[in-house]
């Protein structure tokens, strides 16, 4: 799942400093509540922080501090200006017209800039909210650890199952290799790094700080559904995208939220996301959300109606993709039963 590359003007900053009087005030003392009594949206989950303190209600502040929507606005506006600045710098490295291998390095730089735009504002918000940035879904102690690689294995296996299913209904043919020698490894590594950046950016942007914050206002699963719909809608800008592909992106967004809920962080989702995309773009050499990249391993072909094969969208535009996603959700929910991420003990996880 890959969001189309934005223009230089695109992407997400601004905030208000708190008054000296409020910064110097004593944090509110709250009683200790047993975990089993906690519920989503409870005061017990709010940190006594610069953006959390306060007892008065209003448009900008609720009974537990600055409302979630305004925190999200600060985060997204900060991200926009971070990305704009990063792309402005990048323009000096990649003078138009960009040709040959420079196009691929320009794409790599663009993804790195988007990762910076997603993470830098989170560091600011963590400082303002007096939290650890690790609380937003990507704890550094788990970086590229076991769950990342488990997710990578699930992602590669899932896209392989989908491609085999498409071959089984005669909607896809694997074709033959078009890369040889050292180029096979070179492009395999290039696209692996690229799609890890894609996974980091898209997962943290839509299921990191945003989900963490929005869930405190409306609950985990309502926030998850809303952001998954946004994830699908963002793919509308991709060339050749279809309504089936958009729904598929939203559906797999729900699966990623489930993995966050059950594993406690986003590292499984990042690994899955990265190697699902790597499998499409490099290994099976098919369009990824309507985008066909150079440097792919095979020369495959599609046959049959677009609703079955995916057509220009790629396998994510096939109705069989929904079957795979449902299977993933069922298998994952059975394998990982314990709720490890959330704002309390929500039954039914």
Secondary structure topology:
Elements: H1 20-24, E1 61-62, E2 65-66, H2 68-93, H3 101-129, H4 146-168, E3 172-177, H5 182-207, H6 209-218, H7 220-234, H8 243-263, H9 267-283, E4 298-302, H10 306-309, H11 320-335
Antiparallel strand pairs: 1-2, 3-4
Word description of this protein:
The chain has helices at about 20-25, 70-95, 100-130, 145-170, 180-205, 210-220, 220-235, 245-265, 265-285, 305-310, 320-335, and strands at about 60, 65, 170-175, 300. The chain is built from eleven helices and four strands; from the N terminus they run H-E-E-H-H-H-E-H-H-H-H-H-E-H-H. The model is unreliable at about 5-50, about 50-55 and about 345-349 (pLDDT under 50). The chain is mainly alpha-helical and about 350 residues long.
* Bulk shape: globular
Using only CA atoms, what is the Rg? 21 Å
The arrangement of helices and strands along the chain is: HEEHHHEHHHHHEHH
Instruction: Give the terminus-to-terminus CA distance.
Output: 25 Å
Percentage of residues assigned to helices: 55-70%
Report mean pLDDT, rounded to a whole number: 84
**Which structural category fits the helices and strands?**
mainly alpha
Low-confidence parts:
6-50, 52-56, 343-349
Strand content: under 5%
The overall strand count is 4
Number of helical segments? 11
Strand order of the largest sheet: 1-2
Properties at a glance:
55% helix; 11 helices; single chain; two-stranded antiparallel sheet; 4% strand; mainly alpha; 4 strands; 349 residues
Give a summary of the structure in a few sentences.
The chain is mainly alpha-helical. Helix content is 55%, strand content 4%.
């Amino acid at each position: 799942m890959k969001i189309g590359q934005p223009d230089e003007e695109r992407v997400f900053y601004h905030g208000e400093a708190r008054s000296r009087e409020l910064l110097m005030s004593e944090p509110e003392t709250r009683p200790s509540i047993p975990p089993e009594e906690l519920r989503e949206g409870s005061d017990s989950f709010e940190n006594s922080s610069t953006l959390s303190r306060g007892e008065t209600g209003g448009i900008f502040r609720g009974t537990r501090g600055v409302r979630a929507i305004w925190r999200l606005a600060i985060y997204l506006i900060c991200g926009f200006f971070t990305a704009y600045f990063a792309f402005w710098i990048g323009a000096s490295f990649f003078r138009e017209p960009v040709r040959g291998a420079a196009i691929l390095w320009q794409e790599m730089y663009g993804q790195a800039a988007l990762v910076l735009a997603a993470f830098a504002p989170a560091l600011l918000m963590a400082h303002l909210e007096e939290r650890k940035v690790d609380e937003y879904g990507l704890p550094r102690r788990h970086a590229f650890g076991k769950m990342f690689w488990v997710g990578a294995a699930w992602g590669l296996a899932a896209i392989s199952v989908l491609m085999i299913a498409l071959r089984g209904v005669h909607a896809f043919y694997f074709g033959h290799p078009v890369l040889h020698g050292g180029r096979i490894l070179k492009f395999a590594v290039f696209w692996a790094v690229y799609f890890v950046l894609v996974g980091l950016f898209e997962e943290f942007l839509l299921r990191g700080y945003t989900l963490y914050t929005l869930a405190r206002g409306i609950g985990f699963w309502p926030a998850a559904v809303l952001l998954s719909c946004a994830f699908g809608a963002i793919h509308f800008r991709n060339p050749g995208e279809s309504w089936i592909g958009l729904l598929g992106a939203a559906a797999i967004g729900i699966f990623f939220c489930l993995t966050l809920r059950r594993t406690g962080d986003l590292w499984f989702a990042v690994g899955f996301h990265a190697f699902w995309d790597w499998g499409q773009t490099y290994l099976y050499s098919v369009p990824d959300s309507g985008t066909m990249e150079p440097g792919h391993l095979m020369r495959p072909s599609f046959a049959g109606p677009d609703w079955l094969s995916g057509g220009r969208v790629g396998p994510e535009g096939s109705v069989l993709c929904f079957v795979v996603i449902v299977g993933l959700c069922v298998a994952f929910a059975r394998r990982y039963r314990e709720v490890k991420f959330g704002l309390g003990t929500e039954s039914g996880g």
